[in-house]
């Protein structure tokens, strides 16, 4: 996969004037409930477009991104009914095949609707999602895979126009090799293949648990899929699918974020539900630096932060089952206080070290060289006003604030609300001291990092 320069302009979520004030150094205790997985819910909501009957989803998290995906499905003619963590999706009558730009540009996961729309309707018009804070986020692997399955795909004026030529209205099974094990491309092509004519083999497929969850959801609708969770997925197309009642897996990244919260505050508390094998790399690294992670039951973990400073370690983000890029920022916050030097290499996205500047404002000692960050542990962080730049960077700033001396004010909360279901309520319940408030008039200059 060629490195890409990230775009200067990207669609920033609308400005949020509220701030999160965090007073550091409160020990955490008790237990925290982990919500359903954001990246499963978004893919499965797209997959619901394949279902011509009743689709009943359970354990759906309450997140801005889930609401946005709901708006996109509604714009396509889908009827949705939400009742707490249950989402009823009625995609019997999809009114049209064009997803609106103003919604797609705010949620790149909405691009995943292209596979289900195309294979269900024979046509799909989905705006290019565009880049975001962490990278250019191209969709060439999605497009090339659909073309391999017989789709005619043109990109005009920023919109991907896909259709199935001829009278068949069915994609054809194909053997597809992904140049990179892209999660989204694997999910788009797997969904497209469920109703294709013949067998599709996706090689070098992504193995993330959310891919497996989507495959299990599609199989629950009658799709024939084997090998999800390995690097080769085989899908035998069927003429149609049926109604489904499905529960989404727990969010491994939310769980990983809370494990780091326990370590960085040297606290002890439990987390449930959780699937420990979804977090093997993160748990291994936490143990390597001196935190204890105990299994308290089939889907329950207990985190015990080290009584002393944690040790340093090196991190390299990789496709699953490697260390997840979505946990890189959070783990960096933890390593800023470790005893020694840590090297963090971000290999998945080309611009996912933007949290370094903000952690430095809190006293962290981090040098960036290309896609590597060299973190020299410091004895303490101090509270400061900071600005979140993307979803996981905002989580990293919350974690750093929990350990910092004094008060931290976090701006840019629209990022946090995209991907965490009531994180401040859950942290408060564990004993953290934090509150959401309206920002006084903010002088943007205060975010200019003072030269070292
Ligand atoms: C999914 O994004 C997740 N989002 C991301 O989570 C996660 O970081 C990422 O997978 C990697 O695990 C959802 O599932 C909604 P990719 P996705 O396609 O599918 C390149 C979060 O914080 N690529 O695996 O967009 C791409 O540029 C979010 O929850 C191509 O070159 O990720 C990137 O460098 C952030 N061409 C790499 O592959 C393509 O056609 C990995 O991207 C597609 C991707």
How would you characterize this protein structure?
- With 452 residues, the chain is α+β, with helices and mostly antiparallel strands.
- The chain starts with 17 loop residues before the first strand and ends in a 14-residue tail after the last strand.
- It is built from 14 helices and 23 strands.
- The chain has helices spanning 38-47, 64-75, 101-104, 114-121, 140-148, 183-193, 209-220, 252-264, 280-288, 328-335, 355-361, 391-403, 413-419, 423-430; strands at residues 18-23, 31-33, 54-58, 79-83, 86-90, 123-127, 152-156, 159-163, 175-177, 199-203, 224-226, 232-236, 244-247, 268-272, 292-297, 300-304, 315-316, 341-345, 365-369, 372-376, 385-387, 407-411, 433-438.
- The strands form six sheets. It has a four-stranded mixed sheet with strand order 21-22-1-23, with helices on one face. Strands 2-14-16-15 form a four-stranded mixed sheet. It has a four-stranded mixed sheet with strand order 4-5-3-13, covered by helices on one side.
- Helices cover 29% and strands 23% of the residues.
- It folds into two domains: 4-35 and 250-447, Enolpyruvate transferase domain (UDP-n-acetylglucosamine1-carboxyvinyl-transferase, Chain), CATH 3.65.10.10; 38-247, Alpha-beta prism (UDP-n-acetylglucosamine1-carboxyvinyl-transferase, Chain).
- Bound molecules: ligand EPZ.
